[in-house]
Amino acid sequence: MTHNKEQDTCDHGSAFAPEDLLSMLDLLRAGVMLAGPGGEVLFANRTCRELLEQTETEVTGRHYLDVLALAAPYRAEVAAVFAEAPGPRQRAPVRLEAPSGRHYWTEIEAQPDPRAPDRRILYLYDVSEVHHLRRQLDERTHFQDLVGKSDAMRLVYEQITQLSQVDTTVLIRGETGAGKELVARALHFASHRKDQPFIPVNCAGLTESLIGSQLFGHKRGAFTGAISDQKGVFEAADGGAVFLDEIGDIPLSLQTSLLRVLQEREITRLGDSVPHKVDVRFIAATSRTLSDEVAKGRFREDLLFRIRVARILLPPLRKRREDIPLLVDFFLERARAATGRRVLEVSATAMSILMDYHWPGNVRELESAIEAGVIRCRGAVLLPEDLPVEILHAQPAVAAPVIIPYSRADEQRRILDALERARGNRAAAARLLGMGRATLYRKLRKHGLLER
Prior knowledge:
Largest sheet: 5 strands, antiparallel
Helix content: 40-55%
Number of helices: 20
CATH architecture of one domain: 3-Layer(aba) Sandwich
Strand order of the largest sheet: 2-1-5-4-3
Shape: elongated
Structural class: alpha/beta
Distance between the termini: 38 Å
Number of strands: 16
CATH topology of one domain: Rossmann fold
CATH superfamily of one domain: P-loop containing nucleotide triphosphate hydrolases
CATH class of one domain: Alpha Beta
């Protein structure tokens, strides 16, 4: 690397890059690029050039956006960061593609050059490994909007994947609030019908005339208030899927009509005599034991046989407590976005209470509890007193903070967070975790987070 005196001085006549400083910059693990007022690159350190697979000559003098060769959306993000006024650092996550075809996930931030404020120093952090690990972890803990990595949830994910390949009618069994509609949505959006309508219908509490009209549609004059012809859900969902939640609440008189739809794939509107063909996938759900309902004469046995061709059992939250920390993180992030409150984590004592609570309202109750806690919380950490009273009072008094052991999922997240803080440097991450580098490698292999 050679520099003459004119190159090494700015408009103010002062040296901006002594040789010893350039040597130090070349040793940094982060990429560093200095750009002039017009965006022209004045200097790029060795790490930056290696990421970009370009020589000093190829980089110097070109516009920084051309050097980075970013796709259009990323160009706009980096340009916005470049143009920011001095203040808290903002990072733009971008995907860099080198000439060899290798790509890197990086975070780019910009700061004014303290010796010449009209210039910018760009910092490029290679977070490819962290991005890869995060994607691996997310794939194992999420299935569309479902969250959990317990054995019970893994089985649910496998069943959804298998059943998404066929059009078989599916019955989802689970307690209220367990997430039956999320399972139905995941099933639909993983199938070949994903671009067609998905229409949920809650059968609980609807009157016989209302649910009949809603499902099958009606002709004008079919009942009081029917002032025009109206399509029902089955016609509206043609080509897609209908989700019948709490199917056990459908009146017996309508179960016969529903059975015909399932068998013949055709519907007849209320007040009409002409059937209409429909191409619909049926997904049903119930919190009841339908065989008991059959024994009590409240549900048709032939309809039960028709809807439970394939079954998915969704476990209650108390049966998969190892998923609670994942769900808490998920709902905490959602509550932050919804409320604008900067609540970053849940205290160990509060988490212990959440882990021990019996959750009669299941995942829905947990989501409400976290949102309520975020609204009440006055700091960055959600404390026990921020939780709803019925959850707090259901627990015995806690004399001292209770530190719950880290589950497998918690340990993965601790490792991933440490790698993020260390910007992918495993030695530094091991120090943050208070363990040796060999121990960290062993744990990465244990959790399947290290490519062999």
